[in-house]
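Saturday, quiet lab. Running sequence design on the structure tokens for the scaffold JK sent over.
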């Protein structure tokens, strides 16, 4: 089993932060930022009392900055209406901004050790291969729940996650090393998963450039297109920047753009 820092704690806040950071971001990038983030915001209350801008600044290097905004909003919600603690109830977790089915169940399993299955992309692949066909989201979740040994949710889900990440991989599965190979019905079908759109030249790249600049300073509106890397396409820059405003990540005051201070 991989020795990952968030596996050494059962602190619900630390686990929640790790799971949000790991959405669409590889483990090596997350580790140092997770450690630094928790040093700055060690509790739900500490994060809730910080400005949204400070949380986004601490998110530098992870991308998909809307996750930082949602995490801050979740901390504020927990501080205001949940006594500053991460709930141990699935429905309550799902009410938090940015917390989907996987993340909610991961917190229940990895922080509270409740007997629930977790299904990320890797685990869904393992379960589908074992079944010999691609499982729907509902089928995969039901299968994962049924497989959890009572009282052993934490270890089981971590081992299953590592199996999908390191052994039952998408392109080169090492079936001879799989501890679930008995009864597996996979016969080598290549199940194609949608590829992520190219980053270079994308709107995401422009968003990232602008937020990176805003972490250090405010940016006059006249400079936004250049900061985003599109000096010859101000209309595109205006459109993408407007999305960041709509999402509550940045704000505009007196013809100057800056990170939003509070949600």
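Result came back. Writing it out in full:
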């Amino acid at each position: 089993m991989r020795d990952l820092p968030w596996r050494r704690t059962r602190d619900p806040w630390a686990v929640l932060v790790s799971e949000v950071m790991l959405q669409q971001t590889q483990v090596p990038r997350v580790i140092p930022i997770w450690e630094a983030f928790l040093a700055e915001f060690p509790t739900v209350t500490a994060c809730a009392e910080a400005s949204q801008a400070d949380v986004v600044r601490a998110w530098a290097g992870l991308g998909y900055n809307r996750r930082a905004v949602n995490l801050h909003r979740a901390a504020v919600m927990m501080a205001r209406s949940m006594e500053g603690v991460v709930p141990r109830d699935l429905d309550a977790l799902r009410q938090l901004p940015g917390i989907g089915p996987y993340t909610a169940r991961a917190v229940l399993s990895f922080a509270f050790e409740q007997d629930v299955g977790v299904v990320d992309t890797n685990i869904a692949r393992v379960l589908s291969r074992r079944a010999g066909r691609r499982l729907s989201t509902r089928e995969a979740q039901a299968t994962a729940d049924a497989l959890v040994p009572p009282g052993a949710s934490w270890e089981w889900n971590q081992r299953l996650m590592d199996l999908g990440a390191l052994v039952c991989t998408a392109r080169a599965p090492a079936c001879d090393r799989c501890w679930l190979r008995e009864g597996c019905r996979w016969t080598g079908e290549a199940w194609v998963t949608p590829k992520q759109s190219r980053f270079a030249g994308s709107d995401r790249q422009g968003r990232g450039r602008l937020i990176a600049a805003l972490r250090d300073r405010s940016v006059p509106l006249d400079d936004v297109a250049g900061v985003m890397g599109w000096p010859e396409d101000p209309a595109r820059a205006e459109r993408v920047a407007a999305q960041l405003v709509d999402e509550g990540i940045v704000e505009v005051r007196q013809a100057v753009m800056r990170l939003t201070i509070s949600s």
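Notes for JK: The chain has a mean pLDDT of 92. The first helix runs from residue 12 to 21. Ask whether to fix the surface positions before the next round.
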